[in-house]
Amino acid sequence: MIERRLIDKYPFLPDSKAIIGEREGLVPDSIEREKAIGRAIDSVKANAQTNDFGNLRTFTLSKLLICLLDNDYYLMKFAQTESSRAASNLREESDWDFLKIVGSMFTSLEKIDEETFAISLIDFLNSSNGMEQYQINKGKIILNREQLIGTFRKATYGKIRNFNRIPQDSQVRVMFKDDIENLLSRLPKPPIISSYSGKYLSLPCVKNALAHTPEGKRYYACLSICIACKKDGLSVENANGILEQFVNNSGKTSHPFTIKEALATLNWVYKKNPNFSCKMQRANGLATPDICKSPCTYESSRIKINRVNKSTDA
Predict the structure, then answer these.
(1) What is the pTM of this model?
(2) Domain 4-184: which CATH class?
(3) Which uninterrupted H or E stretch holds 144?
């Protein structure tokens, strides 16, 4: 098992689970709670350069409090900062500790020379998207040091971002009720995307899907929003912000639509670039007559283009 000093500095590593289960079961006191709130605030505000790393308990409680807010925007910012901080720290480690830390995350890690490493294809695909820019040799991805640190950062982000929603009637919410209120009062308000100037994002069916979509239609609603983002030329980062709002607006149902599902759809859309389809919007119950008239603005523009093309061909 990796040393405790490294677990405290990189508390998301796999070995941390055993320590939490065996030794960290005590209820935190007021000092520990305030430290955890401070770390949560620092991370949401993107203060990645802090030198106060805290420890495993501080990180675990910080993430718990962030998750108890039930707001994917805060969890995203927390994960972004914590993973960026980890990558920055990793660059300063000795070669010996560097290999132990990265090897704990990627058990297939091999050191080829001082600046070249290899990890298995499975380890790589579990933490990163796309292989086009990387060399593959005998089923392993070849990475230089900076590429390996980047892959480590993405894996860290995924681990921190992933969590199971805590039931509303959980005793944990009662235990940390005052801490949740304290934290929420000190965090910046998440951005609200209220106006859309894009051709696709401004369509009534897309705006309605973003505002609220009931169970049974959320996948197709998410798909249409992702396609609209892609067609309007939004960056993946900006599209993430819109999906955060979509997930939050979907509500806390018995089967919540998670940000993980939303981002998987976004990645697929930005890779495949499918076309926006009014026909599919109607087929999936997202463009009912009370939401948009037929033909809508988008359809009308497509009809005009088709007429021009036909007259030109004639």
Answers:
(1) 0.69
(2) mainly alpha
(3) strand 140-144
